[in-house]
Specification:
mainly alpha; 3-stranded antiparallel sheet; 12 helices; 51% helix; globular
């Protein structure tokens, strides 16, 4: 669900008529409690993670309001969003495991989909939402403009999660060649490669169902004999390998469409210690050893 949808569904109805200056941390606590309450009693309330995401949206909005002089302080800092009992520990593949997976699926008709997932770090819905008009092979880049999600198992086209999720993602030369081959094969098979056509679609032209893609990933991963990870962990794999390769975190943040570099560094803090050690060694090599005393 996009940030806009979270605001429209869960924040504006209870708080939309409140003056910003009159908003309090206690009101936000009441909101978070009410959003969680149905869940706690076995209903269809929101999870702690979703409520924390909503808190993050409110906090960012009030931070902007404070910067613009609309409020004196950010009362979201006084609120107490629910804590997450267990933070998901990212499980990622190594570079050799990525190669092993791609080698095992090379003969698959949708090989380029798996290649893009690993080499771009794009979300599953973003990949499924790609249209040929979004692909600029001449300049080696794709534009992320939409996503594909399943709501009640019905496929729907959604807006990017945030403004920064709408982005350009650079492609390497090998990926460009794969996309050119994919377009040629699809065209030869009678599939549409018009600008409005989806890259990854069935015979009816509709994009693949997200659940179908995940199920297929689980089967292919199992056949390859690789460690069990979620499809979304391919995104984490991309970021972790990029950080380990010395790619600037700002570039990684832009490729992933994160709201900020700080968010990227927080999510991938597990990869930072080795980078710190590399930085220390690099600086020592640059300056040279200390003179003898």
């Amino acid at each position: 669900m996009s940030y806009r949808d979270n605001l429209r569904l869960h924040v504006i109805p209870p708080l939309g008529r409140e003056a910003l200056q009159a908003l309090s941390g206690a009101q936000l606590d009441d909101l978070y409690s009410s959003l969680r309450k149905a869940k706690a009693s076995g209903g269809s309330g929101l999870s702690s993670k979703t409520v924390r995401n909503i808190h993050t949206i409110i906090h960012a909005s009030l931070r902007d309001a404070q910067r613009w002089g609309l409020v004196v302080r950010n009362v979201a800092e006084l609120a107490n969003p629910p804590r997450l009992k267990h933070k998901h520990e990212h499980v990622t593949w190594s570079a050799s495991e990525c190669r092993a997976f791609l080698d095992s699926v090379r003969a698959e008709p949708d090989f380029v989909f798996w290649h893009l997932a690993i080499h771009t770090g794009m979300r599953r819905g973003e990949l499924l939402g790609l249209k040929w008009a979004d692909v600029d092979l001449a300049h080696g880049q794709v534009s992320v403009r939409r996503g594909v999600v399943a709501v009640g198992y019905q496929v729907q086209i959604s807006e990017p999660k945030t403004a920064r999720s709408r982005r350009l993602v650079a492609l390497d030369d090998a990926t460009v060649r794969l996309l050119e081959e994919h377009r040629s094969v699809r065209n030869a098979a009678g599939g549409s490669v018009a600008g409005s056509a989806f890259l990854f679609a069935g015979a009816d032209g509709h994009p693949f169902h997200p659940d179908h893609v995940y199920g297929r990933f689980v089967r292919l991963r199992s056949l390859a004999g690789l460690p069990a990870i979620r499809f979304h962990d391919l995104r984490h794999t991309h970021a972790t390998l990029a950080l380990a390769s010395g790619v600037n975190p700002k570039i990684i943040s832009e490729r992933l469409g994160h709201a900020s570099v700080a968010f990227t560094m927080d999510v991938y803090s597990h990869a930072i210690p080795s980078l710190q050690a590399d930085a220390a060694r690099a600086l020592a090599d640059l300056i040279g050893p200390p003179a003898s005393r």
